[in-house]
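Quick one:
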Amino acid sequence: MWLNALEDPEDVKTISWGSAALAYLYHYLCEASMDKRKELGGPMILLQLWAWERMLTLRPSFIGSVVHEPYTPCGARWKGTTQIGNAPGHSVEHYLDQISLIRPGQFIRTPYAHCILPDYCNDMNGCSLCETYLVCRAYVEAHEPGRVQRQFNRYQDIPQYVDRMLSNADHLGKNDRHGKKGNNWANTHQFYIGEWDLRYERFQAAEDAAPMSMNIPMSPGYMAWYNRITVTYLTQPGARSTARMNESAASMRLFIVSY
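Output:
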């Protein structure tokens, strides 16, 4: 599938490889969250680097300092020899626990703010702030930066955008390529491709959003809304902590609920 896209060097330059990679990754993350698959796919290195850059408790410990060199991609700094130390006996349970226990000071929303990046790493056209769709052949995923405005150093309000088009198109059914050999996906996804082509026009509306204030980073009702629609803990309340783990989020949750 990928090699066919490389046949014509001139066509290669016209393809948005970054958005295609994200659409592919989002598709697999979505299906995994719906328990429709047991394994993930796509450019998992992007997800790994995203987590390391922002979540302090999930980072590996390196021997020596991890330093970003100017005019290089930020991901290039995660290199060197790691300290294994007292590794968790059951890694999945360990990381679920650490995510459940994460505190505000342990999540860095704008890790690249002080990095000197090469031009190709900078979003000159504001695509990252556009409400649009990402298309990769059979896969279509929504790109909704309005849900994570603080990661763009902007004021976080309750997201108003509702992706009804994908819901109406049975997006949650996660249609795939099975039994559709030879399908012209450009025709099938003509609407979403048209929305992608309008992304620069959407940018101005996003650009008008107010910058984030250090004192008021979000609207007063945002956290109340967020707590209603999210899963606060990823572990079962009252479950025993696994040997060699740190704190137990499940035990912490049981303690909070009880008192």
